[in-house]
Amino acid sequence: MKYKIEKNTVQETLVIPLYSRKLCTELYPNLFQDETAEKLEQGVIRHFAFAVEDVEACVAAVRAGGYPILVEPKTVAIGGNPAFSAKIAFCKGALGEEIEFFQQMWQ
Prior knowledge:
Strand order of the largest sheet: 1-4-3-2
Number of helices: 3
Distance between the termini: 38 Å
Order of helices and strands: HHEHEEE
Low-confidence stretches: none
Structural class: alpha+beta
Mean pLDDT: 77
Largest sheet: 4 strands, mixed
Strand content: 25-35%
């Protein structure tokens, strides 16, 4: 399957690095080996988040890179009065870390 990756897009930002990491890991299994990280269930970094403009596009890019989606895109309320809504999704990164995509839904 071939994809055209446009410059300055989510695909350029996410798919190329994720796919490159996946390909390098397959070709050179010991390249990114970290014995400490392997002992940790969620990698060296447990969780980090990216503020994005389109959560669904990020999830599609990650899925195309062959990485698992832990939480499909969903809208959540962020506490306060009034509460603010945001769209979030989580995926698993190459080292076992949880990556969150956060899309602000308020102005």
